[in-house]
Automatic annotation (TrEMBL):
InterPro entries: Peptide/Ni-bd (IPR030678), SBP_5 (IPR039424), SBP_5_dom (IPR000914). Residues 1-20 form the signal peptide. It comes from the Bacteria. Keywords: Signal, Transport. Pfam families: SBP_bac_5. Residues 78-425 form the Solute-binding protein family domain. It comes from Breznakiella homolactica. Transmembrane segments: none annotated. Belongs to the bacterial solute-binding protein 5 family. The lineage of its organism: Bacteria, Pseudomonadati, Spirochaetota, Spirochaetia, Spirochaetales. This is Peptide-binding protein. GO terms for molecular function: peptide transmembrane transporter activity.
Length: 509
């Protein structure tokens, strides 16, 4: 059975769950439900440190361990309290947060304003996630349960950025006492506490009985690393796992045909794209980059490799994101590609590599791209890397081209444009094309530092047009988010971002 869920339907499901309540219920301990939920995902956690591990496979685990100052309500899409029980905006550049009293970290220590300041300062200093919080100028402690956050300039999505999982609040004393221990044995204040990690195999979590919002409905969570999507499908069929994340289109029919399983799909906030390393020849030549953009038949890839799932991409942000502006999907035109290559000084083409992580759909997309590039004279070799190595080596700029996915977690274009296009964000923060363009920087900054929607939208329109001309990234497809589930799973809500939360989920025996 397949459930195609619109964003509105996701919200209705969340509303139904919210009405039912979030803590433990009468069925939790009477044998009606399993005491463990097991899910399978395609890659391991890259880091348990929320200020480092920003990749979706990491966040799918760590967002159960840590909390943020505020969160986005799944029902209304509005900001609601989490660590901060309330807040007030003091000016265009300052916010006062009142910390909820009595929150305990998993080691029993109380969460205070000191932890909040330490965490935000630490995230700002992180080479991996600073882009999400470096709009902050300073964090001032007023008392043990009150902080004032002052921004460098007016910043419209400030609160939504603070709701992103990599703005998590961590225990200052524990982290400072032994940073390495924190990475191996993470401690947060979230609904689940860390138990164990078997690298490249599994992670085990246990419900935190003293969680401020009440204990989770299921006692244990187990994440299993199953790189091959077909193996995740088999594990779902046999009951080895209850949920399977990020399934490939080849497995959809298998799940749909099984009366005991359900496939959930919904439009996502993700764009998949080829990033061209502008620090390397010939990708420092705009004509070469434009040639590659016009050599790719996006619709054919979607129709064949992706079995019709997804939409051809023009901008690097998806249509559901605030600030999206359509420049039109680049025309598939091999003749134009050949002319551009000739004009660039490569009439006979050139040789290069494209890197991708070991995900079946992504590998198959790149295989199709390699053949399309060969048709215009580019001899491109495909290299498949393990996910952690892929992230590390592309962050270091070792690649010629790389195939990436990016989700706009705040639903605001700044999250993506600043991370992927601003010259201050080269490498690990996200800019793996290593673009460094003063006009792009100016437009990104204009979008970041204005609260007037008209000014922001104009900046993002001009930015989309300029980036389409620069062609540092060849945007390929806006994808759907998906998960397969056993029909005994109750209250599972598909998150359009991909950070599925399981503290309210139960599985009938």
């Amino acid at each position: 059975m397949k459930k195609i869920i619109s964003i509105a339907a996701v919200l209705l499901l969340a509303a139904a769950f919210a009405f039912a309540g979030g803590g433990s219920d009468s069925g939790a301990g009477d044998g009606t439900y399993k005491d463990t939920i097991t899910w399978g995902q395609g890659a391991d956690v890259t880091s348990f440190d929320p200020h480092v591990g920003k990749e979706t496979p990491a966040v799918q685990v760590t967002n159960h361990i840590f909390d943020t100052l505020v969160e986005v309500d799944g029902v209304t899409n509005e900001l609601v309290p989490q660590v901060a029980e309330r807040w007030e905006q003091l000016s265009d550049v300052s916010y006062r947060f009142f910390i909820r009293k009595g929150i305990k970290f998993h080691n029993g220590t109380e969460l205070t304003a000191d932890d909040v300041k330490f965490s935000l300062d630490r995230a700002i200093a992180s080479g991996s996630v600073s882009y999400i919080v470096d709009f902050i100028d300073n964090v001032k402690i007023e008392d043990s349960y009150t902080v004032v956050v002052t921004t460098k300039a007016p910043y419209a999505p400030a609160l939504r950025n603070l709701a992103v999982p990599f703005a998590a609040i961590v225990p200052k004393a524990y982290v400072q006492a032994d940073p390495d221990r924190f990475i191996r044995q993470p401690i947060g204040s979230g609904p689940y506490k860390f138990v164990s990690w078997s690298q490249n195999d599994s992670v085990k979590l246990e419900a935190y009985e003293e969680y401020y919002a009440g204990p989770a409905k299921t006692k244990n969570l187990v994440m299993k690393v199953i790189p091959e999507a077909s193996q995740r499908t088999i594990a779902l069929e046999t009951g080895e796992i209850d949920l399977a994340y990020d399934m490939t289109t080849n497995d959809f029919k298998i799940v749909d045909a099984n009366k005991n399983l359900t496939m959930y799909t919904a439009p996502s906030l993700s764009c998949f794209y080829i990033s061209m390393n502008m620090r390397k020849k010939p990708f420092d030549n705009k004509l070469v980059r434009q040639a590659i953009t016009h050599a790719i038949d996006r619709q054919l890839i979607i129709d064949t490799v992706l079995s019709g799932s997804g939409e051809p991409a023009d901008a690097i942000v998806a249509p559901a994101v605030y600030g999206y502006y359509s420049t039109g999907v680049p025309e598939y035109n091999p003749a134009l590609s050949k002319k551009l290559l000739s004009d660039a000084g490569y009439p006979n083409g050139f040789s290069c590599t494209i890197w991708v992580n070991n995900n079946k759909d992504r590998v198959e997309v790149c295989q199709a791209v390699v053949e399309m590039l060969r048709e215009v004279g580019i001899n491109c070799k495909l290299e498949v890397l393990e996910f952690g190595a892929f992230i590390q080596r592309t962050s270091a700029g070792e690649h010629d081209m790389g195939y990436f996915g990016w989700v706009t977690s705040t639903k605001d274009a700044d999250y993506t444009y600043y991370s992927l296009e601003h010259s201050s964000q080269h490498g690990a923060p996200g800019n793996r094309s290593f673009i460094s363009d003063p006009e792009v920087d100016r437009l990104v900054t204009t979008g970041r530092t204005n609260t007037d929607p008209r000014i922001r939208e104009a900046a993002y329109r001009d930015l989309a047009v300029r980036l389409a001309d620069i062609a540092n990234n060849a945007n390929i497809v806006y994808t759907e988010i998906n998960a397969g589930a056993n029909n005994k799973v109750e209250n599972f809500i598909l998150d359009p971002i991909g950070y599925h939360k399981l503290e309210g989920v139960q599985v009938r025996r």
